[in-house]
Each structure stands twice: as structure tokens, then as C-alpha cells.
């Protein structure tokens, strides 16, 4: 496998040239004193060193050895504890944390790129600190001052890690029917009893304590999701002097043997009258947990992108070196590589198609991730209308980040495997690990089908199209501002068609659903991808605009960079954006063909 190289140039291009993040940060008082361009660049450069020098070298061994389980004890693969210690000692566990409790308070636009680096180097390793960051976010937003003082500082320091405990064997994604119980105690705590499955990082040897965020119900709680509460349950109780106390009856029953992410511990967790502490209000736990879940959903989307980025780097290096066959035009233009017995496979149209697909979709996903992260920063640090718009767009596009990026991510790991041919199917080259690791991203944190329903039913239909209009208004404003720019016409014309088609498709589906609600379920997956390609066209047009303006004077990134960006933008609009046309036809085909067949006839 090729050594991982962090795409720092592309990250800087997005931050400072396309989205002008450094200027945005200075307009937000809560961020202005914490981060500027120099600080951000230093963070990205140092994080790149961690990813390339500490994590990438242990990823292959982590996959081959994995985690082990022995009588309740989970041991991570060789090198993981040392790498985690190095990571924590560098302060990376505090990067996005609340400054009041020892965090660095960096914006999401920066931490998202940090996550991409970690996951491209090794998704399995990244899961441990990223889950802790998500749990800390929920605790910081909903926890009591006492809980935040006691736990956040140690989580940010990397002394303690965290997990999210939602799923139970009988309930899957239907959290309303969970059975884990919470019994109130006289001291204000709760006794938590129940079993949770598929708990990432539920048990391991990386930190001295593990803080579990657990969904449970009181005996008299309302039925369904309205009766869920959220509790903080530590593996070891914490004494008043913040030293570790007695074991809290939190145990790992087993670990899962998985298709991929072998170095990430996926645990069955047992709680047996374990002491827990309420986070937020009783019976409002799902809303509190969604703070973490939405953070993790965007993070999972980044995992999909990260695996695809690594796949592209591997496949491109292999394609340039692999000699096989001759160019189709060799009879008229001469052999491309006359000094060798064959040309590199870069001369073959289908190989170039796969590589350009990966390049265009990866760079588009990174740009769209940055756009969504920018909305989260406005939602977190902005004020007034600016904050409201950020909240709306972040909520609207979270399911796109999770589902669209991971569907494309898996597609691109398979494409990279295809470039390798037979070598991509064997372990020697490491490409098959990316396919296995990426596959889970479409499943956990809510399957992509659930994300599609969240987008279409809850966000779009639930707001009667109002949330979508916030996005389309912004795109249309961009289109209008470039209407007279002849150089931008090749990008603006197809973008205009795409946003018009998305608006018309939305209207059509919402109208049909008035008579048959199944119309939404039947079309949700196609709709999400239509939306995804349209949103990606928007950010690709923004990247093309900057590249056109800088191509003659080399700009900050250099002439070759802008030329490559423009070629890739043209490829996206010519070869990939048209995918939405067949998706629209499928979405409009209706639900009858899905539900006309009886279950017995399947």
C-alpha cells in the first residue's frame, strides 16, 4: 500500500480560497481570539505528521492482529496504546473541546479536516478519540456543571475515553423499545441495568477510565422515544478528589468479529446496577444524545471520504507504475512508452475513468464537508439570522454528509480495488482492507436508508420545503452573481438545471405523498443522492470560480493545481452530475411497484 500523504494543499485551498474561513473566523467573536490562519495551518501541519508518521505505520498490523478478548479484558493491537499516548500528549484529544474545561475550542472546519487525516491513516484508531469528542460535546451542552467539571477535563486530557451506548439486540435502530432500566437512588444517582450491543470502544486498554453515555428508561417512563433518558455511566466511579474509585459493574461480555475495522473494539456491554448520572432532563435523553449522534454522523461521512482518499492515492500510484497493454492510439501516434515492453495502465480509458471518478467525488466530498462544517461553525459561534441559517443548513445536510459520502466512499474503495485488478483482491497490497473498513460506514450511526428518510420525511417534508429553500436560495444567489461571467457558463448552466430539477422533484414528491405517504419511503434513497450531486455541483462551481480567477497568476496554490482543479470540475459536470437524471426518474416512478407484491411472493 502506498504511504499516506495528507492532501494539505487541497485543504488549504478550501479553507482560505474557496470558503475564506480565516476571514469568517474573525467575524465570530467566540472564535476570533482562538484561531487565525497561522494557527490553523500549524495545527493541520502537525496533525499531518501524526497521521503519516504515527498512525499510518500501525494500521496494517492493527487490521491483521485486531483486538483480543480474554475474560472481559480487551487488548488493542500492538502499537495502538503508544500511538494513543502520543496523540493525547500532543493535545489532540482537546482540539474541538470547550475552552472552559481545558479544550482548545477549534472550529469544525478545522476539526473535520483533522478527522479526515486520522481516518485516512487508520479508521480503527480514529474511532476511539472521535467518539470521545462526540460524547464530550453532548456532555458540554447538556450536562450539569458538576459532571462537566469532573469528567470533561479528563476526557479532553486523553486520560479517559468515552462510548455511546444505544443499541440493544432486540431493538436495532428502534430506540423507543429499549429495555435498559434506570432506577432512581436517594443520592440523586440512578442504578443502570441492561445490555447494549455494537458499542464501539466500549472496552479497551487505551485509557484508565471509560465514560459511557447510556440510553435507559425509568420504570414509569412514557412508552416509546418519549420515555428515553440519557445517563453518564463510568467504568470506574470517581472519588471527590477526582481519583478513580471502585469498579462500577460495567463489563464487556464479548467483542464482535467483524468484516473490517478489526483494530476497533466493538463490544457487548453489560450494566449491572451500575451507578449513572442524568444528563439533561428526564425523558429527554434522545434529544441530548442526538447532539453526539449528529456529530458522529458527520464524522462517519468523513470516514467514507477518508477511505476513498486513501483508495485514490493507492490506485493512482499503482496505475502509474503498472505496465500492461498498449494505448489504443499507438498505431497512429506511436507507442507511449517505447523503452518498456508495455505502457502503464494510465493509457486505458476505463482506468482513467475510475481514477477521475475517485478524484472528482473525493474533492467534491471534501469541499461539501467543509461547507457543512462551516454551517456548524455558524450554528455554534454565530448570532441572530446567521446562526439560525447555520442551524438549518447543518440539520438539513447532516444526513447527506453521512449517507452520500459513505455511499461514494465505498464506491471509490471498490473502484480503487478494480484499478489494482487481481492485486486488489489479495491482502499483500492492502487495498482490500479499505473496502472492508469502508463498508461499515454505510451501516452504523443509522443506516443510509434511515438517513434518506430523515432528509426527505423529517427535514424536507416535515418543514414543508422550508429547510430546502434555505439551501436553494443560497445556490440561486450564487448563480445570479455569476450569470454574466462567460468563463463560468460551463459550470453555471448545469448547476442551474440541477437545482431546478431538485426543486421540481421535491414539489412532485411532497404533492404525491399527500395521498400516499409511502411515496416518501420509496423515493428517499434516490432523492438523497439527487440532493447530494446537486450540492456537490454547487461547491464544485465555487472551486471552479476560484481556480479560473487564479490560473494565470498561480495564486496561492500554483498553476498546475488550478489547472488540475478545473479539469476535474469539468469532468464532474460532464460525467458525474448527469447521474442525477436517472435517479430523478427512479424517484418519480412511485411506490406502487414496491408495495404491489405480497410478502409471500418475494
From TrEMBL:
Keywords: FAD, Flavoprotein, Oxidoreductase. Its EC number is 1.3.99.41. Its cofactor is FAD. Residues 283-457 form the Acyl-CoA dehydrogenase/oxidase C-terminal domain. Residues 38-159 form the Acyl-CoA dehydrogenase/oxidase N-terminal domain. One of its GO terms (molecular function) is oxidoreductase activity, acting on the CH-CH group of donors. Residues 471-598 form the Acetyl-CoA dehydrogenase-like C-terminal domain. It is an enzyme of class 1 (oxidoreductase). It catalyses: 3-(methylsulfanyl)propanoyl-CoA + oxidized [electron-transfer flavoprotein] + H(+) = 3-(methylsulfanyl)acryloyl-CoA + reduced [electron-transfer flavoprotein]. InterPro entries: Acyl-CoA_dh-like_C_dom (IPR025878), Acyl-CoA_Oxase/DH_mid-dom (IPR006091), Acyl-CoA_Oxase/DH_mid-dom_sf (IPR046373), AcylCo_DH-like_C (IPR036250), AcylCo_DH/oxidase_C (IPR009075), AcylCoA_DH/ox_N (IPR013786), AcylCoA_DH/ox_N_sf (IPR037069), AcylCoA_DH/oxidase_NM_dom_sf (IPR009100). Residues 163-273 form the Acyl-CoA oxidase/dehydrogenase middle domain. Belongs to the acyl-CoA dehydrogenase family. Involved in the assimilation of dimethylsulphoniopropionate (DMSP), an important compound in the fixation of carbon in marine phytoplankton, by mediating the conversion of 3-(methylthio)propanoyl-CoA (MMPA-CoA) to 3-(methylthio)acryloyl-CoA (MTA-CoA). PANTHER family: ACYL-COA DEHYDROGENASE, BROAD-SPECIFICITY LINEAR ACYL-COA DEHYDROGENASE FADE5. This is 3-methylmercaptopropionyl-CoA dehydrogenase. It comes from Colwellia psychrerythraea (Vibrio psychroerythus).
Amino acid at each position: 500500500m502506498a504511504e499516506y500523504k495528507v492532501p494539505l494543499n487541497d485543504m488549504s485551498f478550501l479553507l482560505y480560497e474557496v470558503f475564506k474561513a480565516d476571514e469568517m473566523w474573525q467575524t465570530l467573536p467566540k472564535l476570533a481570539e482562538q484561531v487565525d490562519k497561522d494557527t490553523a495551518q500549524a495545527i493541520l501541519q502537525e496533525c499531518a505528521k501524526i497521521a503519516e508518521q504515527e498512525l499510518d505505520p500501525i494500521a496494517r498490523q492493527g487490521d491483521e492482529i485486531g483486538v483480543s478478548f480474554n475474560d472481559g479484558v480487551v487488548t488493542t493491537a500492538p502499537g495502538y496504546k503508544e500511538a494513543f499516548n502520543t496523540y493525547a500528549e500532543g493535545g489532540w484529544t482537546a482540539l474541538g473541546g470547550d475552552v472552559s474545561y481545558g479544550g482548545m475550542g477549534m472550529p469544525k472546519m478545522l476539526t473535520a479536516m483533522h478527522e479526515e487525516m486520522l481516518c485516512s491513516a487508520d479508521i480503527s484508531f480514529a474511532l476511539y478519540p472521535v467518539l470521545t469528542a462526540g460524547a464530550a460535546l453532548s456532555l458540554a451542552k447538556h450536562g450539569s456543571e458538576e459532571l462537566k467539571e469532573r469528567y470533561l477535563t479528563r476526557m479532553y486530557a486523553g486520560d479517559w475515553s468515552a462510548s455511546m451506548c444505544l443499541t440493544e439486540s432486540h431493538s436495532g435502530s428502534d430506540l423507543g423499545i429499549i429495555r435498559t432500566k434506570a432506577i432512581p437512588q436517594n443520592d440523586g444517582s440512578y442504578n443502570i441495568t441492561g445490555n447494549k450491543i455494537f458499542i464501539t470502544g466500549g472496552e479497551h486498554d487505551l485509557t484508565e477510565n471509560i465514560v459511557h453515555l447510556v440510553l435507559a428508561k425509568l420504570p414509569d417512563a412514557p412508552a416509546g422515544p418519549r420515555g428515553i433518558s440519557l445517563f453518564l455511566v463510568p467504568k470506574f466511579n470517581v472519588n471527590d478528589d477526582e481519583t478513580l474509585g471502585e469498579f462500577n459493574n460495567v463489563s464487556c461480555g464479548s467483542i464482535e468479529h467483524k468484516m473490517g475495522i478489526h483494530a476497533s473494539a466493538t463490544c457487548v456491554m453489560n450494566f449491572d446496577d451500575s451507578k449513572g448520572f442524568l444528563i439533561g432532563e428526564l425523558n429527554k435523553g434522545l434529544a441530548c444524545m442526538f447532539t453526539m449522534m449528529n456529530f458522529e454522523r458527520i464524522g462517519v461521512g468523513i470516514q467514507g471520504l477518508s477511505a476513498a482518499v486513501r483508495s485514490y492515492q493507492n490506485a493512482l500510484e499503482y496505475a502509474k507504475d503498472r505496465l500492461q497493454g498498449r494505448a489504443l492510439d499507438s498505431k497512429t501516434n506511436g507507442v507511449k512508452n517505447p523503452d518498456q515492453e508495455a505502457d502503464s495502465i494510465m493509457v486505458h480509458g476505463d482506468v482513467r475513468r475510475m481514477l477521475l471518478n475517485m478524484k472528482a467525488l473525493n474533492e467534491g466530498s471534501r469541499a461539501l464537508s467543509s461547507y457543512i462544517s462551516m454551517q456548524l461553525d455558524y450554528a455554534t459561534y454565530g448570532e441572530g439570522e446567521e446562526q439560525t441559517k447555520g442551524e438549518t443548513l447543518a440539520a438539513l445536510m447532516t444526513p447527506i454528509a453521512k449517507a452520500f459520502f459513505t455511499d461514494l466512499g465505498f464506491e471509490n474503495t471498490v473502484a480503487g480495488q478494480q484499478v489494482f485488478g487481481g492485486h486488489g483482491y489479495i491482502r499483500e497490497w492492502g487495498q482490500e482492507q479499505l473496502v472492508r473498513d469502508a463498508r461499515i460506514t454505510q451501516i452504523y450511526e443509522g443506516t443510509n436508508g434511515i438517513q434518506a428518510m430523515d432528509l426527505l420525511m423529517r427535514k424536507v417534508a416535515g418543514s414543508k420545503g422550508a429547510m430546502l429553500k434555505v439551501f436553494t436560495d443560497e445556490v440561486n444567489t450564487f448563480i445570479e452573481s455569476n450569470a454574466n461571467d462567460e468563463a463560468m457558463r460551463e459550470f453555471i448552466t448545469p448547476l442551474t438545471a440541477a437545482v431546478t430539477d431538485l426543486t421540481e422533484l421535491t414539489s412532485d414528491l411532497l404533492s404525491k405523498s399527500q395521498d400516499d405517504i409511502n411515496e416518501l419511503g420509496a423515493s428517499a434513497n434516490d432523492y438523497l443522492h439527487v440532493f447530494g450531486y446537486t450540492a456537490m455541483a454547487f461547491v464544485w462551481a465555487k472551486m471552479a470560480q476560484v481556480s479560473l480567477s487564479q490560473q494565470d497568476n498561480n495564486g496561492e496554490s500554483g498553476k498546475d493545481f488550478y489547472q488540475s482543479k478545473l479539469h476535474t470540475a469539468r469532468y464532474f459536470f460532464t460525467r458525474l452530475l448527469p447521474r442525477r437524471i436517472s435517479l430523478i426518474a427512479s424517484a418519480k416512478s412511485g411506490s406502487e411497484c414496491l408495495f404491489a407484491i405480497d410478502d409471500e411472493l418475494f
